[in-house]
Amino acid sequence: MIELKSAEEIGRMAVAGQFVGELLAELSGVAAVGVNLMDIEHHARRRIKERGAESCYWDYAPSFGRGPFRNVLCLSVNDAVLHGLPHDYVLRDGDLLSIDMALGIDGWVADSALSFVVGTPDPADLKLIEATEVALEAAITAAQPGGRLGDISAAIGQVAHSYGYRVNHEFGGHGIGRTMHEAPHISNDGRARRGMRLDPGLTVAIEPWLCQHTDKIKYDEDGWTIRSADGSRTAHSEHTVAITPTGPQVLTRRPTPAADTDEPTRKPAAAA
């Protein structure tokens, strides 16, 4: 069942969304060459506890996982794109890291993800990240009241194909609100003007993700981490968005980073 949220309820989701955006921005600053993935995970655990929030990932046990997920972040490196299990790995120069996080505050949930390069970037990696970010912005623009779900999917697919990438249909966006995963499913490719109507009050997580040279995936032995089937690089961008009478409202925007005169430890693509 799809629950349309009131303006007040969207406002409560926005509280969770603001914290998700702020914490993701903070974590992207923590991540650097020489930093262990588990240090990033434990930093997030401390901040979530301090805020009185609840992770949507902890004890999450869908059909495709192997046992409950016992972390608050998905940390996916290089050819890993979704559900990356935090583990004892020290980030190296040029690694492409995707951080995905969903949490709840006072019963309302928000979900967001970003990808970036730590250290020296490869232009091909920056292009891949940019494609997911541009696709996300196009999908948000397409999420207009009175439109159709296929408008969002078509916008993502059009951008992906324009960059020369293929699109996997197995995982995509989803409804969100009181829980992390609600109806409807949002494919990352599709046909415009098809599918359910986008009514005000609908809240969704839109999340284009791409592999550099394939649309096929494989799973690690941990049962969680999803990688490109051919070992090529991957990227993932996501925002929680509310459909309002006046247009889409992004609930998980990240704060604009302050100018830094020091040598950067990572080089992001265009801001999501």
UniProtKB/TrEMBL annotation:
It catalyses: Release of N-terminal amino acids, preferentially methionine, from peptides and arylamides. Keywords: Aminopeptidase, Hydrolase, Metal-binding, Protease. One of its GO terms (molecular function) is initiator methionyl aminopeptidase activity. Substrate binds at residues 83, 181. A divalent metal cation 2 binds at residues 111, 174, 207, 238. Transmembrane segments: none annotated. InterPro entries: Creatinase/aminopeptidase-like, Pept_M24, Pept_M24_MAP, Pept_M24A_MAP1. Its cofactor is Co(2+); Zn(2+); Mn(2+); Fe(2+). Residues 13-244 form the Peptidase M24 domain. Its EC number is 3.4.11.18. Residues 247-272 are annotated as: Disordered. A divalent metal cation 1 binds at residues 100, 111, 238. Binds 2 divalent metal cations per subunit. Has a high-affinity and a low affinity metal-binding site. The true nature of the physiological cofactor is under debate. The enzyme is active with cobalt, zinc, manganese or divalent iron ions. Most likely, methionine aminopeptidases function as mononuclear Fe(2+)-metalloproteases under physiological conditions, and the catalytically relevant metal-binding site has been assigned to the histidine-containing high-affinity site. Belongs to the peptidase M24A family. Methionine aminopeptidase type 1 subfamily. Removes the N-terminal methionine from nascent proteins. The N-terminal methionine is often cleaved when the second residue in the primary sequence is small and uncharged (Met-Ala-, Cys, Gly, Pro, Ser, Thr, or Val). Requires deformylation of the N(alpha)-formylated initiator methionine before it can be hydrolyzed. This is Methionine aminopeptidase.
